[in-house]
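This part of the workshop introduces the protein records we will be handling. A record pairs a protein's sequence with a compact description of its fold. As an example, a complete record with its sequence and its structure tokens follows.

_____
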Amino acid sequence: MRVLITNDDGINAPGLEVLEAIATDIAGPGGEVWCVAPAFEQSGVGHCISYTRPTMISQFGPRRFAAEGSPADCVIAAIHEVMETAPDLVLSGVNRGNNSAENAVYSGTIGGAMEAALHGLPAIALSQYYGPGNRELEDPFEAARAHGTDVVRRLLDHGTWGGDGDYVPFYNVNFPACPADEVQGMRVGRQGFRRSRGFGIEPMNSPGGRRFFWIKGGRQDLPTGPGTDAQDNMDGYVSITPMRADLTAHDLLDGLTASLGRAD
């Protein structure tokens, strides 16, 4: 099997080393692991692509490349430039921090997997929740490192890949913030929503008097309800959420059509 890996934390991020180990297990003897990852951190870029400027790509080693762009850029570069044959599987992560609930909307990790799915390729995004249960561990990625290969194999065996729809599904996996031996199992659930202010602002003035601000995240330990990804993570489970690159609010179509009609 030929596996492509990418991330949004950058090519030197520790989570990418964890993902490379997972991908090596999945590829198996005689398989190949290709890495095309951002040269610099790209957290929060979502599904951004750099179509208004050129993107430099450099080779760091055998089947290992860094691109000065987003995770989606990296996947596009891998498919159309770096690899002679398209990969059999694309893995994105392992992100430092969760991409559960509303974080999924901003995630460059998910953006890389989504881009692969738009090319019709099987893709999985993987992220490691951070919290009091693992922040001080020698290896905060312990849960992902220990359970990642099994999760990916189970999805390859039991997940839905391709299909008759316009948008190929992909999968969002989040590992709980606990030691590997305290993981309770896996749960499939929908994307949750933390009902808080979400992202905020930390303003500051530069020495020259100009006004700047930092974007800062909200609380990550808020409940999101039964059957949702972040809640499962906080309960000690690996969450698995099937996704598509389809932003249509399908539940609203019939009502809106009845009210406004449909223009042919």
